[in-house]
Amino acid sequence: xxxxxNHSNFIRIAHISDLHFSKITFSPTQFxxxxxxxxxxxxxxxxxxxxKEHLVNLIKLLEEQKVDLVIISGDLSSTSMNxxxxxxxxxxxxxKKRGIECIILPGNxxxxxxxxxxxxxxxxxxxxxxxxxxxxxTLKDHRLEVHKVMDKLWLVALDTVIPTPxxxxxxxxxxxxxxxxxxxxxDVPKDVTLMIVNHFPFFQHDSPHNRLVRGPSLKALLxxxxxxxxxxxxHTHRECIADLRSSSLPIVLDAGCxxxxxxxxxxxxxxxxxxxxIKVFKWKDDWEEIQSKSFTLQKTADQDQSTPLFAE
Length: 312
Fold this sequence. Notes:
By secondary structure, the chain is an alpha/beta fold. It is built from 8 helices and 15 strands.
């Protein structure tokens, strides 16, 4: 089974990230964990994140645009509280009611405390469609999941999140996950194109406490497998599109922060065997397209020249 539903020769994907469903709490138990830092941050800097009317409008727009797949690359919550996950799960349920498939992975705010991480609280609320999953790996148990989006386009979702100290928002691309991912990549047929989705970027531009530990190891692995044509992430809250193919790396897509009504962005992607067309949307009293880009997709030397990239 593939995810493609609404279109015959391309797939329409919405990439959103960092929804940060939240509610300020004054419970004294927050001081037993790092949640008090998260709540202080909400009070001082993110109070307007409590307003989510723009996400209600987003659901309607995604339905109108006949989106096949929504990719949510983490941070659905703010402090990993049950009520935050409940709000986020209601948002996802509304998408699914409209026939829109979703692939969801956690961000650092979704494993915010050691207790939430130990209980795998995020995975009590979110799981991806087993019908499109390839192999036995799951995000919950193996930190990795492979989905067939189209016959020749597969998506690999990663969970590189760990609970961190008070002032840290790091992720970790562990040696164990590196070994698992490399083994999975070696088994992918040569005529399949890959899209990697992770909450964290692999580059080291942010401050050390906000980076993906062993990011350079992930970068080296991306270079090793030219079938990886796209890398989607969130975390930075900075919408960005970067074509790194001249450096033997994928096209990198950061959808920005969809949860912050003051600076909300997301990407609408039309992906065919010939090209990738991206529209950038920003909230300005309503969702407005502010930019568009197109990329011509060339086959690599390792891909079967007789087989279209995304043939059905």
